[in-house]
Design a protein that fits this description.
The protein is α/β, with parallel strands linked by helices. It has 14 helices and 16 strands. A hairpin with a 2-residue loop joins β5 and β6. α7 packs across α9 and α7 crosses α10. The model has no long low-confidence stretch (mean pLDDT about 95). Bound molecules: nicotinamide-adenine-dinucleotide. Nicotinamide-adenine-dinucleotide (NAD) binds next to α4.
Protein backbone atom coordinates (compact mmCIF):
# COMPACT_ATOMS: atom_id res chain seq x y z
CA UNK A 1 0.00 0.00 0.00
CA UNK A 2 1.22 3.51 -0.80
CA UNK A 3 2.43 5.27 2.34
CA UNK A 4 1.26 8.79 3.18
CA UNK A 5 3.78 11.51 4.00
CA UNK A 6 2.73 14.92 5.32
CA UNK A 7 5.36 17.59 4.74
CA UNK A 8 4.52 20.49 7.04
CA UNK A 9 5.73 23.75 5.43
CA UNK A 10 6.20 24.06 1.66
CA UNK A 11 9.07 26.56 1.65
CA UNK A 12 12.74 26.38 0.64
CA UNK A 13 13.15 23.15 2.64
CA UNK A 14 9.71 21.54 2.53
CA UNK A 15 8.94 21.87 -1.18
CA UNK A 16 12.10 20.11 -2.48
CA UNK A 17 11.51 17.37 0.09
CA UNK A 18 7.88 16.98 -0.99
CA UNK A 19 8.94 16.68 -4.66
CA UNK A 20 11.52 14.03 -3.75
CA UNK A 21 9.04 12.07 -1.62
CA UNK A 22 6.64 11.96 -4.60
CA UNK A 23 9.49 10.57 -6.74
CA UNK A 24 10.16 7.98 -4.02
CA UNK A 25 6.55 6.77 -4.36
CA UNK A 26 4.86 8.40 -1.37
CA UNK A 27 1.40 9.86 -1.36
CA UNK A 28 2.46 13.38 -0.34
CA UNK A 29 0.40 16.01 1.40
CA UNK A 30 2.22 19.33 1.08
CA UNK A 31 0.75 21.27 3.98
CA UNK A 32 1.34 25.00 4.36
CA UNK A 33 -0.70 27.54 6.32
CA UNK A 34 0.02 30.11 3.59
CA UNK A 35 -2.87 29.62 1.20
CA UNK A 36 -1.33 31.74 -1.57
CA UNK A 37 1.55 29.25 -1.63
CA UNK A 38 -0.61 26.13 -1.71
CA UNK A 39 -2.87 27.66 -4.37
CA UNK A 40 0.14 28.53 -6.54
CA UNK A 41 1.48 24.99 -6.08
CA UNK A 42 -1.89 23.46 -6.94
CA UNK A 43 -1.79 25.56 -10.15
CA UNK A 44 1.66 24.17 -10.94
CA UNK A 45 3.69 27.25 -9.96
CA UNK A 46 6.80 27.01 -7.84
CA UNK A 47 8.11 29.98 -5.82
CA UNK A 48 11.32 28.20 -4.82
CA UNK A 49 14.08 28.69 -7.39
CA UNK A 50 15.57 25.20 -7.10
CA UNK A 51 12.20 23.67 -8.04
CA UNK A 52 10.82 24.37 -11.51
CA UNK A 53 7.14 24.75 -12.38
CA UNK A 54 7.57 21.62 -14.46
CA UNK A 55 8.65 19.60 -11.42
CA UNK A 56 5.56 20.74 -9.52
CA UNK A 57 3.33 19.91 -12.49
CA UNK A 58 4.95 16.47 -12.87
CA UNK A 59 4.35 15.81 -9.17
CA UNK A 60 0.70 16.91 -9.46
CA UNK A 61 0.26 14.72 -12.54
CA UNK A 62 1.19 11.59 -10.55
CA UNK A 63 -1.93 12.20 -8.45
CA UNK A 64 0.28 11.69 -5.39
CA UNK A 65 1.02 15.33 -4.53
CA UNK A 66 -1.65 17.39 -2.79
CA UNK A 67 -0.77 20.95 -1.68
CA UNK A 68 -3.22 21.88 1.11
CA UNK A 69 -3.70 24.85 3.44
CA UNK A 70 -5.60 22.82 6.03
CA UNK A 71 -5.34 19.30 7.42
CA UNK A 72 -9.13 19.00 7.72
CA UNK A 73 -10.29 15.74 6.20
CA UNK A 74 -6.91 14.03 6.66
CA UNK A 75 -7.11 11.42 9.37
CA UNK A 76 -3.70 9.78 9.49
CA UNK A 77 -0.17 9.62 8.07
CA UNK A 78 2.69 7.15 7.97
CA UNK A 79 5.38 9.80 8.22
CA UNK A 80 5.24 13.55 8.85
CA UNK A 81 8.18 15.89 8.41
CA UNK A 82 8.16 19.37 9.96
CA UNK A 83 9.97 22.07 7.96
CA UNK A 84 8.56 25.28 9.45
CA UNK A 85 10.46 28.50 10.19
CA UNK A 86 12.47 28.96 13.38
CA UNK A 87 13.13 32.71 13.62
CA UNK A 88 14.71 34.79 16.37
CA UNK A 89 12.79 37.55 18.11
CA UNK A 90 15.04 40.07 19.81
CA UNK A 91 17.73 37.42 20.16
CA UNK A 92 15.35 34.76 21.56
CA UNK A 93 14.42 31.59 19.59
CA UNK A 94 10.80 31.57 18.47
CA UNK A 95 9.55 27.98 18.37
CA UNK A 96 5.86 28.80 18.01
CA UNK A 97 5.76 27.43 14.44
CA UNK A 98 7.14 24.08 15.62
CA UNK A 99 4.65 24.05 18.52
CA UNK A 100 1.76 24.71 16.12
CA UNK A 101 2.95 22.03 13.70
CA UNK A 102 3.09 19.55 16.60
CA UNK A 103 -0.40 20.52 17.75
CA UNK A 104 -1.77 20.10 14.22
CA UNK A 105 -0.15 16.70 13.67
CA UNK A 106 -0.95 15.22 17.08
CA UNK A 107 -4.63 14.39 16.42
CA UNK A 108 -3.60 12.54 13.23
CA UNK A 109 -0.99 10.40 14.97
CA UNK A 110 -1.63 6.67 14.94
CA UNK A 111 0.34 3.72 16.30
CA UNK A 112 3.47 3.00 14.27
CA UNK A 113 3.56 6.45 12.59
CA UNK A 114 6.75 8.53 12.47
CA UNK A 115 7.34 12.26 13.01
CA UNK A 116 10.60 13.95 12.00
CA UNK A 117 11.62 17.52 12.75
CA UNK A 118 13.88 19.21 10.18
CA UNK A 119 13.68 22.86 11.27
CA UNK A 120 16.93 24.22 12.64
CA UNK A 121 16.73 24.54 16.41
CA UNK A 122 18.66 24.21 19.68
CA UNK A 123 19.53 20.76 21.08
CA UNK A 124 16.72 19.24 23.10
CA UNK A 125 13.81 20.64 21.06
CA UNK A 126 12.71 17.28 19.60
CA UNK A 127 12.69 15.37 22.87
CA UNK A 128 11.84 18.07 25.38
CA UNK A 129 9.47 20.29 23.43
CA UNK A 130 7.98 18.47 20.45
CA UNK A 131 7.48 15.02 22.05
CA UNK A 132 5.25 16.32 24.90
CA UNK A 133 3.09 18.29 22.43
CA UNK A 134 2.60 15.23 20.21
CA UNK A 135 1.86 13.04 23.24
CA UNK A 136 -0.63 15.47 24.80
CA UNK A 137 -2.59 15.88 21.56
CA UNK A 138 -2.65 12.19 20.64
CA UNK A 139 -2.79 10.35 23.94
CA UNK A 140 0.06 8.19 22.60
CA UNK A 141 3.61 7.83 23.91
CA UNK A 142 6.71 8.72 21.89
CA UNK A 143 9.02 5.74 21.50
CA UNK A 144 6.26 3.34 22.59
CA UNK A 145 3.36 4.05 20.25
CA UNK A 146 4.98 6.28 17.62
CA UNK A 147 8.47 7.06 16.31
CA UNK A 148 10.17 10.41 16.58
CA UNK A 149 13.42 11.82 15.23
CA UNK A 150 15.36 14.81 13.99
CA UNK A 151 17.17 15.26 10.68
CA UNK A 152 18.74 18.64 9.93
CA UNK A 153 18.32 20.14 6.49
CA UNK A 154 21.48 21.05 4.58
CA UNK A 155 19.82 22.51 1.54
CA UNK A 156 21.90 25.25 -0.11
CA UNK A 157 19.59 27.20 -2.41
CA UNK A 158 21.13 27.84 -5.82
CA UNK A 159 23.87 25.21 -5.39
CA UNK A 160 23.84 23.05 -8.53
CA UNK A 161 26.61 20.71 -7.34
CA UNK A 162 25.34 19.74 -3.91
CA UNK A 163 21.62 19.03 -3.93
CA UNK A 164 19.15 17.50 -1.52
CA UNK A 165 19.84 14.11 -3.12
CA UNK A 166 23.65 13.95 -3.11
CA UNK A 167 24.34 15.84 0.12
CA UNK A 168 24.71 13.34 2.99
CA UNK A 169 21.87 13.70 5.51
CA UNK A 170 22.28 13.30 9.25
CA UNK A 171 19.46 11.24 10.81
CA UNK A 172 18.48 10.45 14.39
CA UNK A 173 15.71 8.96 16.50
CA UNK A 174 14.71 9.05 20.16
CA UNK A 175 15.30 5.28 20.29
CA UNK A 176 16.57 2.51 18.03
CA UNK A 177 13.22 1.82 16.37
CA UNK A 178 12.71 5.53 15.66
CA UNK A 179 16.19 5.85 14.17
CA UNK A 180 15.51 2.83 11.94
CA UNK A 181 12.26 4.38 10.67
CA UNK A 182 13.79 7.82 10.10
CA UNK A 183 16.81 6.33 8.34
CA UNK A 184 14.64 4.09 6.16
CA UNK A 185 12.62 7.11 5.02
CA UNK A 186 15.64 9.24 4.12
CA UNK A 187 17.43 6.30 2.48
CA UNK A 188 14.75 6.62 -0.20
CA UNK A 189 15.17 10.40 -0.47
CA UNK A 190 18.97 10.93 -0.43
CA UNK A 191 22.02 8.92 -1.48
CA UNK A 192 23.74 8.82 1.91
CA UNK A 193 22.37 8.95 5.43
CA UNK A 194 24.57 9.52 8.48
CA UNK A 195 23.01 8.13 11.69
CA UNK A 196 23.90 9.74 15.02
CA UNK A 197 23.01 8.47 18.46
CA UNK A 198 20.23 10.86 19.46
CA UNK A 199 18.31 13.95 18.26
CA UNK A 200 20.48 16.22 20.42
CA UNK A 201 23.62 15.31 18.47
CA UNK A 202 21.74 15.84 15.20
CA UNK A 203 20.38 19.20 16.37
CA UNK A 204 23.86 20.29 17.45
CA UNK A 205 25.36 19.13 14.13
CA UNK A 206 23.34 21.69 12.20
CA UNK A 207 24.18 24.50 14.61
CA UNK A 208 27.86 23.54 14.56
CA UNK A 209 27.94 23.66 10.75
CA UNK A 210 26.38 27.10 10.59
CA UNK A 211 28.36 28.49 13.52
CA UNK A 212 31.56 27.27 11.83
CA UNK A 213 30.66 29.23 8.70
CA UNK A 214 29.54 32.28 10.64
CA UNK A 215 32.75 32.44 12.69
CA UNK A 216 35.04 31.93 9.69
CA UNK A 217 33.24 34.58 7.65
CA UNK A 218 33.63 36.96 10.60
CA UNK A 219 37.34 36.14 10.69
CA UNK A 220 37.94 37.14 7.06
CA UNK A 221 35.62 40.15 7.38
CA UNK A 222 37.61 41.50 10.30
CA UNK A 223 40.82 40.75 8.43
CA UNK A 224 39.51 42.62 5.37
CA UNK A 225 38.93 45.75 7.46
CA UNK A 226 42.45 45.63 8.95
CA UNK A 227 44.15 44.70 5.69
CA UNK A 228 42.48 47.61 3.90
CA UNK A 229 43.87 50.04 6.48
CA UNK A 230 47.29 48.37 6.30
CA UNK A 231 47.35 48.62 2.51
CA UNK A 232 47.45 44.83 2.05
CA UNK A 233 45.39 42.93 -0.53
CA UNK A 234 43.40 40.52 1.65
CA UNK A 235 41.84 38.77 -1.36
CA UNK A 236 45.24 37.82 -2.70
CA UNK A 237 46.32 36.54 0.72
CA UNK A 238 43.15 34.42 1.02
CA UNK A 239 43.67 32.92 -2.45
CA UNK A 240 47.30 32.17 -1.63
CA UNK A 241 46.34 30.54 1.69
CA UNK A 242 43.76 28.44 -0.15
CA UNK A 243 46.54 26.75 -2.15
CA UNK A 244 47.42 24.86 1.04
CA UNK A 245 45.96 21.40 0.43
CA UNK A 246 45.23 20.73 4.12
CA UNK A 247 44.28 22.63 7.27
CA UNK A 248 42.76 25.66 5.55
CA UNK A 249 39.30 26.28 4.18
CA UNK A 250 38.56 29.29 2.02
CA UNK A 251 36.03 31.90 3.19
CA UNK A 252 35.71 35.33 1.60
CA UNK A 253 34.77 38.74 2.99
CA UNK A 254 31.48 40.39 2.10
CA UNK A 255 29.01 43.10 3.11
CA UNK A 256 27.60 40.99 5.98
CA UNK A 257 25.72 37.72 6.34
CA UNK A 258 22.09 37.11 5.43
CA UNK A 259 19.51 34.46 4.68
CA UNK A 260 17.64 32.26 7.05
CA UNK A 261 20.64 30.51 8.58
CA UNK A 262 23.79 32.42 9.47
CA UNK A 263 22.28 35.50 11.11
CA UNK A 264 19.92 33.27 13.11
CA UNK A 265 21.17 29.76 13.87
CA UNK A 266 24.35 30.48 15.87
CA UNK A 267 22.24 32.60 18.22
CA UNK A 268 20.05 29.56 18.95
CA UNK A 269 23.17 27.92 20.32
CA UNK A 270 24.44 30.91 22.30
CA UNK A 271 20.95 31.46 23.72
CA UNK A 272 20.84 27.84 24.93
CA UNK A 273 24.32 27.96 26.43
CA UNK A 274 23.36 31.13 28.30
CA UNK A 275 20.02 29.73 29.45
CA UNK A 276 21.28 26.28 30.50
CA UNK A 277 24.79 27.05 31.71
CA UNK A 278 24.71 30.78 32.39
CA UNK A 279 27.74 31.24 30.15
CA UNK A 280 28.46 33.29 27.05
CA UNK A 281 29.31 31.55 23.79
CA UNK A 282 32.00 34.11 23.02
CA UNK A 283 32.82 32.98 19.50
CA UNK A 284 29.20 33.39 18.41
CA UNK A 285 28.87 36.77 20.05
CA UNK A 286 32.08 38.05 18.50
CA UNK A 287 31.11 36.74 15.06
CA UNK A 288 27.66 38.37 15.36
CA UNK A 289 29.33 41.63 16.30
CA UNK A 290 31.77 41.61 13.36
CA UNK A 291 29.28 40.40 10.74
CA UNK A 292 26.47 42.70 11.94
CA UNK A 293 28.77 45.70 11.51
CA UNK A 294 29.93 44.91 7.97
CA UNK A 295 27.16 46.99 6.32
CA UNK A 296 28.34 49.97 8.40
CA UNK A 297 31.90 49.40 7.21
CA UNK A 298 30.76 49.17 3.58
CA UNK A 299 28.88 52.47 3.91
CA UNK A 300 31.90 54.08 5.56
CA UNK A 301 34.04 53.01 2.60
CA UNK A 302 31.49 54.39 0.15
CA UNK A 303 31.29 57.69 2.01
CA UNK A 304 35.09 57.96 1.90
CA UNK A 305 35.16 57.19 -1.83
CA UNK A 306 32.55 59.87 -2.59
CA UNK A 307 34.40 62.33 -0.37
CA UNK A 308 37.58 61.62 -2.34
CA UNK A 309 35.65 62.67 -5.43
CA UNK A 310 34.40 65.85 -3.79
CA UNK A 311 30.84 64.60 -3.35
CA UNK A 312 28.66 64.45 -0.25
CA UNK A 313 26.48 61.34 0.14
CA UNK A 314 23.45 63.61 0.44
CA UNK A 315 22.00 63.94 -3.03
CA UNK A 316 24.50 61.53 -4.62
CA UNK A 317 23.01 58.96 -6.92
CA UNK A 318 23.99 55.50 -5.69
CA UNK A 319 23.22 52.24 -7.47
CA UNK A 320 23.05 49.05 -5.39
CA UNK A 321 23.91 46.00 -7.49
CA UNK A 322 22.17 43.03 -5.88
CA UNK A 323 19.79 43.01 -2.91
CA UNK A 324 19.41 39.25 -2.20
CA UNK A 325 21.55 37.71 0.49
CA UNK A 326 23.75 35.70 -1.86
CA UNK A 327 24.55 35.13 -5.51
CA UNK A 328 22.00 33.74 -7.97
CA UNK A 329 19.11 33.41 -5.51
CA UNK A 330 16.07 35.59 -4.87
CA UNK A 331 16.01 35.10 -1.09
CA UNK A 332 16.25 38.59 0.44
CA UNK A 333 15.61 37.56 4.06
CA UNK A 334 18.07 39.17 6.50
CA UNK A 335 20.08 40.44 3.51
CA UNK A 336 22.75 43.00 4.51
CA UNK A 337 21.61 45.13 1.55
CA UNK A 338 18.68 46.30 3.70
CA UNK A 339 20.97 47.74 6.37
CA UNK A 340 23.23 49.28 3.73
CA UNK A 341 20.21 50.92 2.07
CA UNK A 342 18.87 52.16 5.41
CA UNK A 343 22.18 53.79 6.34
CA UNK A 344 22.54 55.43 2.91
CA UNK A 345 18.94 56.63 3.05
CA UNK A 346 19.58 58.23 6.43
CA UNK A 347 22.53 60.05 4.89
CA UNK A 348 20.27 61.44 2.15
CA UNK A 349 21.55 59.38 -0.80
CA UNK A 350 19.44 59.08 -3.93
CA UNK A 351 19.15 55.29 -4.02
CA UNK A 352 18.62 52.97 -6.99
CA UNK A 353 18.85 49.18 -6.97
CA UNK A 354 19.01 46.33 -9.47
CA UNK A 355 18.54 42.62 -8.83
CA UNK A 356 17.31 40.24 -11.53
CA UNK A 357 16.44 37.58 -8.93
CA UNK A 358 14.35 39.63 -6.52
CA UNK A 359 10.91 41.03 -7.21
CA UNK A 360 11.10 44.89 -7.04
CA UNK A 361 8.36 45.01 -4.40
CA UNK A 362 10.81 43.19 -2.10
CA UNK A 363 13.62 45.72 -2.59
CA UNK A 364 14.84 47.63 0.49
CA UNK A 365 12.64 50.67 1.26
CA UNK A 366 13.71 53.88 -0.48
CA UNK A 367 15.37 52.17 -3.47
CA UNK A 368 14.09 52.87 -6.97
CA UNK A 369 14.24 49.59 -8.94
CA UNK A 370 16.14 49.83 -12.23
CA UNK A 371 17.71 47.53 -14.83
CA UNK A 372 21.49 47.46 -15.15
CA UNK A 373 22.11 49.49 -18.31
CA UNK A 374 25.09 51.57 -19.48
CA UNK A 375 22.94 54.69 -18.87
CA UNK A 376 22.07 53.71 -15.28
CA UNK A 377 25.68 52.86 -14.54
CA UNK A 378 27.08 56.10 -15.87
CA UNK A 379 24.29 58.17 -14.27
CA UNK A 380 25.23 56.89 -10.80
CA UNK A 381 27.89 58.74 -8.82
CA UNK A 382 28.78 55.39 -7.27
CA UNK A 383 27.77 51.76 -7.78
CA UNK A 384 27.98 49.32 -4.90
CA UNK A 385 28.28 45.66 -5.86
CA UNK A 386 26.72 43.74 -2.97
CA UNK A 387 25.89 40.43 -4.65
CA UNK A 388 27.91 38.58 -7.26
CA UNK A 389 25.01 37.42 -9.47
CA UNK A 390 26.14 35.64 -12.67
CA UNK A 391 23.54 37.77 -14.50
CA UNK A 392 25.61 40.91 -13.89
CA UNK A 393 27.93 41.48 -16.83
CA UNK A 394 31.07 42.42 -14.89
CA UNK A 395 32.87 43.94 -17.89
CA UNK A 396 29.85 46.11 -18.66
CA UNK A 397 29.80 47.31 -15.05
CA UNK A 398 33.43 48.38 -15.18
CA UNK A 399 33.12 49.92 -18.63
CA UNK A 400 30.21 52.22 -17.78
CA UNK A 401 30.24 52.86 -14.04
CA UNK A 402 31.73 56.09 -12.73
CA UNK A 403 33.00 54.33 -9.62
CA UNK A 404 32.39 50.84 -8.18
CA UNK A 405 32.86 49.67 -4.62
CA UNK A 406 33.09 45.91 -5.07
CA UNK A 407 32.12 44.12 -1.85
CA UNK A 408 32.61 40.66 -3.44
CA UNK A 409 35.85 40.89 -5.41
CA UNK A 410 33.79 40.12 -8.49
CA UNK A 411 34.68 42.73 -11.11
CA UNK A 412 37.97 43.34 -12.95
CA UNK A 413 40.16 45.68 -10.96
CA UNK A 414 40.26 48.79 -13.14
CA UNK A 415 41.00 52.32 -11.94
CA UNK A 416 37.32 53.06 -11.26
CA UNK A 417 37.01 50.01 -8.94
CA UNK A 418 37.84 49.56 -5.27
CA UNK A 419 37.45 46.31 -3.39
CA UNK A 420 36.30 45.78 0.17
N1 LIG B 1 16.29 27.93 3.47
C1 LIG B 1 17.36 27.23 3.71
O1 LIG B 1 18.30 27.26 2.93
C2 LIG B 1 17.47 26.34 4.94
C3 LIG B 1 18.53 25.43 4.98
C4 LIG B 1 18.65 24.60 6.06
C5 LIG B 1 17.71 24.67 7.10
N2 LIG B 1 16.69 25.58 7.05
C6 LIG B 1 15.75 25.57 8.16
O2 LIG B 1 14.55 24.93 7.75
C7 LIG B 1 13.42 25.54 8.37
C8 LIG B 1 12.46 26.03 7.30
O3 LIG B 1 13.12 27.01 6.49
P1 LIG B 1 12.61 27.47 5.07
O4 LIG B 1 13.70 28.29 4.48
O5 LIG B 1 12.06 26.31 4.32
O6 LIG B 1 11.40 28.43 5.50
P2 LIG B 1 10.24 29.01 4.53
O7 LIG B 1 9.76 30.25 5.19
O8 LIG B 1 10.72 29.05 3.12
O9 LIG B 1 9.11 27.89 4.59
C9 LIG B 1 8.43 27.55 5.76
C10 LIG B 1 6.96 27.41 5.41
O10 LIG B 1 6.28 26.91 6.56
C11 LIG B 1 4.97 27.45 6.56
N3 LIG B 1 4.40 27.27 7.90
C12 LIG B 1 4.63 27.97 9.03
N4 LIG B 1 3.95 27.43 10.06
C13 LIG B 1 3.25 26.37 9.59
C14 LIG B 1 2.39 25.41 10.15
N5 LIG B 1 2.09 25.42 11.45
N6 LIG B 1 1.87 24.47 9.35
C15 LIG B 1 2.14 24.45 8.03
N7 LIG B 1 2.98 25.32 7.43
C16 LIG B 1 3.54 26.27 8.20
C17 LIG B 1 5.17 28.88 6.12
O11 LIG B 1 3.99 29.45 5.59
C18 LIG B 1 6.27 28.72 5.03
O12 LIG B 1 5.72 28.60 3.74
C19 LIG B 1 13.98 26.63 9.27
O13 LIG B 1 14.17 26.11 10.55
C20 LIG B 1 15.32 26.93 8.63
O14 LIG B 1 16.24 27.46 9.57
C21 LIG B 1 16.54 26.40 5.97
Amino acid sequence: MTETAIIVGQGYVGLPLAMRAVEAGYDVIGYDVDETRTKALADGTSFVEDISDEQVRDALATGRYRPVASLDGIDRFDIAVITVPTPLHEGVPDLTYIDQAGEQLAPLLTRGATVVLESTTYPGTTQERLAPILEAGSGLTAGVDFHLGYSPERIDPGNKTWTLVNTPKVVSGIDEASLAKVKAFYDQIVETTVPVSSPKEAELTKLLENTFRHVNIALVNELAMFAGDLGINVWEAIDAAATKPFGFMKFTPGPGVGGHCLPVDPSYLSWQVKRSLGQSFRFVELANDVNDHMPDYVVRRLVAALNERGKPVKGSRILLLGVSFKANVGDWRESPSFRVAKLLNELGADLYAADPHVSPDRFPPGCTPVEVTPEELSAADASLLLVDHDAFDKRQLVRHATYILDARNAVPQETNVERL
